[in-house]
Amino acid sequence: MSRPAPNPIYTLRGAGGALNTLHFRCNGQDSPLLFSGSENGAVHIWNLNSRRPVKVVEAHTGSSVIWVSTLQSTGSLLSQGRDLQVCLWDLRDGGCELLDSVWTGSVGFCQCSLLETSSTNHLLAFAGQQTEEIKIIELPSKNPVCTLIPEAKLGMVMCIKLWKPESGVGPLLLAGYEDGSLLLWDVTQRSVLSQVKAHPEPVMCLTFDPKRLRGISGSSEKKLSSWMLDSQNNIQLQDSVVLVNPGVSQICIREDGRLLASAGWDHRVRIFGWKKLRPLAVLQYHTDMVLSVAFSDHLDPRQTLLAAGSKDQRISLWSIYNEGSDTG
What we know:
Protein name: Guanine nucleotide-binding protein subunit beta-like protein 1
Shape: globular
Low-confidence stretches: none
CATH topology of the domain at 104-242: Methylamine Dehydrogenase, Chain H
Number of helices: 0
Structural class: mainly beta
Strand order of the largest sheet: 1-28-27-26
Largest sheet: 4 strands, antiparallel
Strand content: over 45%
InterPro entries: WD40/YVTN_repeat-like_dom_sf, WD40_repeat_CS, WD40_repeat_dom_sf, WD40_rpt
Organism: Austrofundulus limnaeus
WD repeats: 30-56, 196-237, 283-320
CATH class of the domain at 104-242: Mainly Beta
Distance between the termini: 16 Å
Helix content: under 10%
Keywords: Repeat, WD repeat
């Protein structure tokens, strides 16, 4: 008999808007932090020990924040807003100074993707001004690397993921489009390596496991589509995960490759074993759409948390399957 689904270990309130994006910075930190971006234009930085915000960055003058991340090398904060800006913030010495900004021109909801190629150099990918355009630049120089536009009309770019294969070749980028297509781009060659139709509806979200060369994507339909890359970098569609209710906002894989979490339009977070995509738990707490999910990067895997942000303006924190249980 399966165990009942747990309750959140605690919740965070006071963001003042729907929680579009979450990002942890716990690895090696005395005070583990959670960054949240909300529709009211603010980025809250939560101390997970005190469970209170240590700082609120009014990042995008009231425009919805759709993505946040931090640079591991410097601890600087990156935030993306519906004001068409990506901002870089210096958080050192307790301050909050705007260091630089990048104008994207994109009116969509596609979240940026960051790849830290070295301690001093990073790649940032974002949807551009044209409907199907993806731009990649270097940070901090902001030098353009390339612009990726598919030959076929696929509609708006919806979600992207930059990553670098262990083989040592240049960075690759996965992109989901409005017509349901998934494309794998070679950034160095500016060419499409593979293309499949993963969904009949727009690809709302995707995530990818570079160690296992496996990915999964979600849309407004009642399924998750899983896929893998073969030795020739062709995207091969695999099994689908049928959901009870339609609509997935975001999906994420835990660092150890054991768990997958999905943020549902039905107010629920669903947990699956990443290896076999076996359903493990349905987390019920929120009273509106769950918009974001993220696993923490604690050094001790027994401390790993799952955070879920909702349109109900609350963040729930969960401790699940951290004791070596079979997840499959």
